Amino acid sequence: MKNNFNLNDYPLWTALVTPFTDAGEVDYAVLEQLVAQQQAANNGILLLGSTGEGLALSLKEQQAIVEHVCQLKPSVPLMVAVGGMNLAQQIAWVEYCNQLPIHGYLLGSPLYAKPGIVGQTHWFESLLNASNHPCMLYNVPGRSAVDIPPAVISNLKDHKNLWALKEASGDIAKFEGFRTASPELAIFSGDDALMPYFAQAGAKGLVSVAANAWPEQTHEFVKRSLSGQHPNLFADWSQAIQSLFAVANPIPVKVLMHLQGRLNSPYLRPPLTHLELTQTDCINNANNTILSWH
Questions:
Q1: Within a 10 A sphere around the Cβ of 229, how many other Cβ atoms?
Q2: Which residue, of 69, 72, 181, 246, has the greatest Cβ tally within 10 A?
């Protein structure tokens, strides 16, 4: 495995789903196939994010998944998600992953507690200090219940391990606030549908859900978004991506991947369930649209 990846050379990172069997066990054979698909499309891989149901897995399962993917020695970089609300546990997780051949971390905002500027600065600084790799912070108020204030980015902007920010609030004004707080910070869209708009505002790339189902097509979508030369690109994509968020992510994308034959089972860990998605016409139509697009 190459260790000297320039992470900014990878404008698309796939927030990889975790495949399960019908019995709810991690399906490692399918996981290998999913990694191969992302590698073939030259997409960076994010393990154990919210799309990967990371917080629904036991620590042993999390460790086994990261170790298993590392043993495959993919030719693309690996990022591992760090998330929860117990700082000591998250530091221990970072220290564990530091021993493995990974290339970066996604550091989520602390869940549930809703800390302010001082608390968030301490949280992220502690994790950045523990890391041996570049880190992408993750602003996702829809899941953490609180935004990362631009002041936190200002406080951390000179940290040697702060590489990027995944901005998933859906608000271009917040994106601009982060750009102002740290002009050198690489900002990635955390919303597939907003990638064209974030690209125009100076985004470096996308951390994607859609790339699980459409690895090559999403790679091309990001490339064209960043080139700014394809203004008619976005209507089809926007509609298709909406179908992947009809109910909580990653339910629709896992159901679609099951229909595509990429997953043996659409199983999700409770409280999520594929039974939430009562009709599949929208994702089937989206699949046909995107596969004919590229």
A1: 8
A2: 69
- Strand, helix or coil at 207? strand
Give yes or no: 138 in active site.
yes
Residue 1: the pLDDT is: 38
Q: Which residue among 138, 174, 204, 267 is the active-site one? A: 138
Which among 10, 105, 166, 254 is annotated as catalytic? 166
Is residue 199 within 8 Å of 237, Cβ to Cβ? no
Tokens 């599949």 correspond to what residue?
280
Residues in the chain where the model's pLDDT stays below 50 = 1-2
**Can 254 be counted among the known catalytic residues?**
no
∠ CA 193-123-198, rounded to 5° = 20
Query: 10 Å Cβ neighbour count for 158?
Result: 9
**Cα(263)–Cα(279) distance, integer angstroms:** 18
| Structure-block tokens of residue 271 | 């409280």
Q: Which two tokens stand for residue 72?
A: 């495959």
Task: Give the amino acid at 284.
Answer: N
In 10 A of CB 235, how many CB atoms?
9
pTM of the model: 0.96
